[in-house]
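Q:
Got a chain?
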Amino acid sequence: MKGFLYYLVLFAICGLGPVYYFRKTLGNPRLIAASFFAVIFGSSILNAVVLTAGHFGYLVTGRNLHFYGLATAAISVFYLMFGLWRPISVRSCSSPAAELKNFPEILGRITLGDLLVTLILAVFYGYLVAINFTFYFPKWDHFTYWMIDAKSIYESGYLRKSADLINIFSYTSYYPLHAVYLFDFYGRTVEQCASLFTLMYAVLGSFIAYYTVKQTSFSSRILAGFILFVVATSFSEQLVTFYADVVSAYSVALFFFFLLREPVLGEGGKRLFLIVSSLLLLAAIKSTNVYYVAILFVVWLACDLRPASLKKFLDPKEYAGTHLFSLLLVIVAGRFYYLKYVWNIKLENSPLIVMNRLETDPFKYLVYIDHLFDFLLEQNTIMCLLVVIAVYQITLYKSLPKPSLAILSAILLLPSLNLAHYVLTQYGLQSLSILRYVTTVFFLLPMYFTSLPTRPAPRFYFGARNICMLGWVIVMFYGLVRSYSIVGLPIHSGSYEGFTYQKTFADISRDIKAIVGKERLLIAGNDSDIYVGNMRMTELPLRYYLSENSVAGLYRVPKGRFLDKLRGTGVEFLLVTTYNDALMQLLNLETTPAGVSLYKLEPGDLEHPKLLRTFQ
C-alpha cells in the first residue's frame, strides 16, 4: 500500500504546475477539486515521460525511473512557485483572521448532496480496497498481456523489444508501466497491489463525471451520485483487476469533460491541447482504441467546430498555448521511433493462426445477435438498460442540446463498435471480455442525464425517481457484497505466487528454473489433434512465471508447422503441459506426460527430445 501511496503523492506533485497553468480552462478549481486534477495531470505526464523514454530505448527502471519522477515533480513545483510568486508590495495585507474566514471559499463550496455522494462513493471504494487486499483476481488476460508485459519490463529494465514473449497483442506498455512502478519500489513482483491503480482511475473517472454536473440542486446531484454508484457496481471485477478498460472509460470521460468546458477568452489553445491530449491518452492505453479515437474525433468536430464560432476559434489570441503541441509531437515521434528502430518482430516465419473468420450464412449472425443480447441481459443488466435508453433518446435528437447529443453519440457508437466486432468474428459466447469492452462509456451516463434540459415535473415524480434509484443501489450493492465476502479472510502478500490456486504453477516454475538456468524454453500444450498451442490456463501461468526463459509467446499452429516454429525459436528446452496425441507422435516423446514434462532438445535432432523430469 505504501508504494501506491508514494506514487499517488508523486502524481499529485507532478500535476501541481499543470493545474495552475490550466486553471482558467478548468474553471479555477478550489482546493479539493484541484487535488484531483493534480493527480489526473500528474499521472498522465509522468507516464508519458517514462513511456517516451522507453520508446527511445532508455532504461525505465531503477535510477532512471526515480530520475524521471523526481525531475518531472521538480519542474512542476518550480513552475507553480514561479506562477504564485508576487512582489511583496502587491500582496494582500489582510489579517490572519480574515484569511481564515475565506478558507471555506478556497476549499470550495460543498453542498449536502456533495457530502452524501462523497460518503457513499468513499465507503464503496474503501470496500473495494479491502477486497483488493483480500482476494486474488489473476485471470486469462493478466497472463496473456497486461501483467506479463509489466513483468517483462521489470526483468529487462526496458520496453519489450521483440515478439519472443508477446506475439499476439499490439497493446502499448502505457498501463503495464503502473505495475512496473510498484515492482521497482518493492524490488519484487506485487501484482495484486498494482490493481490499486485501477481503483485510482475508477475514483478519478467518478470525480470527472460528478464534477461535470452543472446543476447544483440537491436532487440532481443525488441522482448523479446514484448513477455513478450503480455504474461502479456494474464494472464488477474490473475494478479490482489490472485491466485497461476502466482507465479507457476514464479517458473517454476526460475527453468529454474538456470538450464540454466553455471556451475562455485567450484559453482556446490550452483547451484544444487538452482535448487532443485526452484522445492521445486513449490511443496510448490500447492501440485498438484508435477506433474509439476516430469516433470521438468526429464527435468533437460536430460539437465544437460550429460555423458561427469558426472565426473565433481561429482567432490567434485563442492559441496562447499552442506551443504545448511540440510536447505531443515528441511523444508521438517516440512511438514511431520505437516501432521503427527498437521493436524487432521475430518468429515471423511461424505466424499465429487466427481461427476467427467471417460466416457466409447471414441467418447465423441473426441467431448470434439474439444470443449475445440474452447473454448481456443476464450478465450485465446495466448495459442493456443503457442500450434501451440510448435507442429511445436518439429519437428525440431534435430536442437535445448539442452537448447532450455528443455524449449520446458516444454512448451509442463506442459499444456498438465492439458489439459489431464480436458479431462478425466470434462463433459463440466464448469470452467474458465482451462485458468489459462495452463499459468504455459508463462514466458518461451521469454526465448525459444531468446534461439534459430540465423540465417541470409533478412533485411525486422526484420522490418516485429517488425511490427507484435507491432501490437500484440496494440491489446492486447487495449483489456485490454477496459476491465478495471478506469476513475472516487473511490479507495476502500482493503476489500471485501467494494465491492458493497459483501456488502449484509457481512451485513448478521454480523447479524448472533451477534446471534450465538462463536457457530458453518453449511451452506447448494440448489444443487438438490438428493444432498445437499454448493459449489455455494450464500454460498461461507457467509462461508468466517463466517469463525470463519462455519465448514464442502465444500461438496456435497446425501440427505440420510446429517443428518450423520450434526451429525458429532456437530454444534448448521444451515444456509440454498436457497430453497431446499429435505432439507425442510428431516429436516421438519418450513417455506420455501425466503432468507437466520438461524435455531437453538436442541440436539438430528436434524430433527426439530427452525427458528430464515430470512435475505433478
